[in-house]
Amino acid sequence: MRILLILFIYISFNSTHTLAEKADWNIAKETHAKVKDIDVYYSKTCGCCKKWMSHLKTQGFTVKPKPVPYMQDFKKKHGIAGEYSSCHTAFIGGYIIEGHVPADDIKRLLKDKPDIKGLSVPAMPVGTPGMEQGDRKDPFYVITLPHKGEPEIFHSYEKY
User: Fold this and answer.
1) Domain boundaries, the chain
2) What three-state secondary structure class fits 13?
3) Residue 5 and residue 57 in contact, taking contact as beta carbons nearer than 8 Å
4) Fold of the 29-157 domain
5) Other CB atoms closer than 10 Å to residue 7's CB: what's the count?
6) Do residues 30 and 108 lie in contact, with contact meaning Cβ atoms separated by under 8 Å?
7) DSSP structure string for 38-62
8) Count of CB atoms within 10 A of residue 11's CB?
9) Residues 146 and 114 sit within 8 Å (Cβ to Cβ)
10) Quick one: pLDDT band at residue 156, thresholds 50, 70, 90?
11) pTM of the model
């Protein structure tokens, strides 16, 4: 019986540990390009924006928080269409980062330097960096914000 209990504890710990590793946004998979300073525009009352900024700091970015009183006006001024918008907007290396884009995708963007305006995770999907809610992880896409034409999928997170 004692061996079964030890085996159960071992399996439970390792299973939980493995799941946590897969979902841990703070484990870097990409290395940094030279640019690390990121300006983040957000509403002071938004807690998930602060959590996303914490995620970026953990990944080695230098976050410069910039509270904005009217985010929708700010997004409109910068050409971010409603269907691509989320709660916060950031700028890094000449790119727009809209919403809860994982840090590794930002690093890849800065390394690959595609000819786009930036990246977006529209809305606020549960499970994205800053939007963690226990074990719930909704599928989501990081999409491109093109200069013209339709956005494309930059990274798909269907099972993570």
Assistant:
1) 29-157
2) helix
3) no
4) Glutaredoxin (3.40.30)
5) 10
6) yes
7) EEEEE-TT-HHHHHHHHHHHHTT-E
8) 10
9) no
10) very high
11) 0.82
Please give the average per-residue pLDDT across 27-46, as a whole number: 88
What is residue 8's DSSP assignment? H
Within the chain, strands assigned E span 37-42, 62-67, 89-92, 95-99, 118-121, 140-145, 153-157
- Write the DSSP string, 134-149: TTB---EEEEEE-SSS
Q: How far apart are alpha carbons 147 and 93 in whole angstroms?
A: 16
Task: Report pLDDT digits (tens) over 79-96.
Answer: 998 899 999 999 999 999
> Parallel, antiparallel, or unpaired for β 140-145 and 153-157?
antiparallel
CA 160 to CA 40: how far, in whole Å?
A: 25
CB count within 10 Å of CB 34 equals 7
In a 3-state reduction of DSSP, which class is residue 69? coil
| Residue 159 pLDDT level (bands cut at 50, 70, 90) | confident
Q: What average pLDDT does the segment 44-48 reach?
A: 90
